[in-house]
Amino acid sequence: MTAPKKPAQRPVVPLFSSGPCAKRPGWSLDNLQNAFLGRSHRAKEGKARLKLAIDKTKTLLGLPPGYLCAIVPASDTGAFEMAMWTMLGERGVDALAWESFGEGWVTDITKQLKLKDARIMKAEYGKLPDLSKVDFTRDVIFAWNGTTAGVRVPNGDWIPANREGLVMVDATSAVLAQDIPWDKIDVLTYSWQKVLGGEAAHGMLVLSPRAVARLESYTPSWPVPKIFRLTKGGKLIAGVFEGETLNTPSMLCTEDYLDALNWAESIGGLKGLFARANANAKALNDWADRTPWLKNLAEDPATRSNTSVCLKVVDPAVAALPEDAQRAFVKQIEAILDKENAARDIAGHRDAPPHLRIWCGATVETSDIERLTGWLDWAFAEAKAGLAKAA
Questions:
Q1: Count of other CB atoms within 10 angstroms of residue 296
Q2: pTM for this one?
Q3: Where are the domains of the chain?
Q4: CATH says 35-265 is which class?
Q5: What is the pLDDT of residues 177-198, one digit of tens each?
Q6: CATH superfamily of 269-390
């Protein structure tokens, strides 16, 4: 087999990190000139900018009447922690995990909150747990798209509309790229740094009326940190959902988020965002399907992520290596591409099996994905040649 030639053209934007992700096409610091800086975020104009970000978010997501949205501290992690620490414990919980972030929520439930009535349903990387065994008389927690495995739930058909417990979803690499059936979801969280390519440190919290009812009717037995408190005197702090944030937000990051929201509106809203992510993932997966040295980590094509696409090396010479050596091989591919400025930050997550992880969210151009594939072939051949020399 002839070794592939070094490609003549690099991706125009070689940024394929799964978070923080590439900025939207055409992004410039000049777009942030109207940021409300050097003033209190509680000033009338500051609150107006924050409320505008919330209102635009609700419109873009297509939230049903009665659903609330807030900007909260500490990115998606903070938003999901807030939901768990304020709402769990009223009834039993089923927690699903098939990659590292889901595992993190399981750790919180079992070792931090120490819930006595918790069922943990796990699957290895590349697979989903048996969704038919989830009990919706209980609270249910899961990550819609497992960012570090590239495995997502195929749809929301397995979630009943007449559930008794709350359905709480970490959707940071799913929302704005995958269809979310809002009537099936009570709590959803994400961060600005993913599909819209915003800045980190701020989380978004979406609540259904059922989630609000839980907050106002249930008080956890454990202490709740100040930045997690959504109620006062048994009533929801309504201002949090109107731009009166719990702590000081970055108004520069807020302006950047508004810029990303405006861009999303300009390309057709959700339909435009979905189409871009789907086109990117299709280009990458079509190439992977005809490439013998790797395959998608997601075993079932119906569960393949269209944002964080995870590809494992299956070339026999590499697959026969110990896991540490396989991980080093993947790192070598990443290093080769990084040196060539052809791709940045594409090694898989440290807690996952060795693989390449390539972000295909809406801020990435399909033409850059197509160019990347030739560089991946070339970098693999270079790394394998180095492996043969070392043998």
A1: 23
A2: 0.97
A3: 35-265, 269-390
A4: alpha beta
A5: 999 999 999 999 999 999 999 9
A6: Aspartate Aminotransferase, domain 1 (3.90.1150.10)
